[in-house]
Write a structure and sequence with these properties.
By secondary structure, this protein is an all-alpha fold. It is 57% helix and 0% strand. Helix 1 packs across helix 4. The chain is globular. It starts with a helix and ends with a helix.
């Protein structure tokens, strides 16, 4: 799962954190609570997930338990495989 985590972290830094230090993001940090991703960002994240991992994210799966941290995203992707 480490390859998935690295890919997620890279996407988050390239698209949302830009100049932040990579050590500043812990894999369990909440994207919403930390202000990393807003509601528009969630749509961008979902589009990236579907394109990058060849999965479909159903509407009922658009919940924080699936999408709100690096670790939650990695587990969600692994569960879809």
């Amino acid at each position: 799962m480490s390859e998935i985590i690295l890919k997620i972290r890279s996407f988050i830094f390239e698209n949302f954190l830009f100049e932040a230090d990579e050590e500043g993001l812990v894999n369990d940090d909440s994207f919403l609570e930390k202000g990393i991703i807003d509601s528009t960002g969630v749509l961008e994240l979902v589009e990236w997930l579907e394109d990058s991992f060849d999965i479909v994210v159903d509407d009922e799966e658009l919940i924080p338990e699936n999408l709100d941290s690096v670790n939650q995203l990695a587990a969600f992707i692994a569960g879809k495989a």
